[in-house]
Specification:
This protein is globular. A seven-stranded mixed sheet has the order 3-2-1-4-5-7-6, with helices on both faces. The longest helix has 13 residues. It contains seven helices and seven strands. The protein has about 180 residues and is α/β, with parallel strands linked by helices. Helix 3 runs parallel beside helix 5.
Length: about 180
């Protein structure tokens, strides 16, 4: 579901890439012309390196060791994926390199917890939430947020919308009732 949110067909950075599967999938399926797979830990990055090599995508997927988006430069990527981390940490990663966070076409964020804190951070720091969707795997529902920086802070109609997104309601997400 995270991969399906990619829309540019350009360069996509996957932060916390683990095995590099997202970058591999995006480039193999021509959803991205190339990818930058990044992780803060050497072990997962080496796993990603092995997978990239096994799939013969060394010319399409760049691998980088580093924290969040700190090792990216402005204009280097079109979209950024940050998935599988806490909402507060995701906000901190965006804050650590505002130049990149503010310049990309889209952020695709999948917080594992503190989703309401991430929404609050985004809306109070000049980001627009473009879309949201839910995905179910086994017993867990995952929230996926697409956002971009506009420089304009936004308020929500009701405090509950930090927890239950207005976008999910507007979209009549098929998992909304269960959520």
């Amino acid at each position: 579901m995270v991969a399906s949110c990619v829309g540019s067909g350009g360069t996509v950075a996957d932060i916390g890439c683990d095995h590099g599967f997202t970058s591999i999938y995006l480039t193999e399926n021509k959803m991205a012309k190339c990818g930058i797979a990044m992780d803060i830990n050497k072990g997962p990055l080496e796993n990603a390196r092995s997978e990239v090599k096994r799939n013969k995508l060394e010319d399409k997927v760049d691998l980088r060791l580093g924290s969040g988006i700190e090792v990216l430069k402005k204009g280097e990527v079109d979209e950024v994926i940050i998935a599988g981390m806490g909402g507060i940490l995701i906000g901190e990663l965006l804050e650590a390199n505002k130049e990149v966070a503010h310049s990309v076409e889209k952020l695709i964020l999948q917080p594992m917890q503190a989703q309401e804190e991430l929404r609050r951070y985004l809306l109070n720091n000049g980001y627009e939430i473009l879309n949201e969707c839910l995905e179910k795997e086994d017993f867990r529902l995952y929230e996926i947020i697409e956002a971009r920086y506009t420089g304009k802070n936004t308020t929500v109609d009701d405090e509950i919308n930090y927890e239950v997104s207005q976008k999910l309601i507007e979209n009549k997400d098929e998992l909304l009732a269960e959520f």
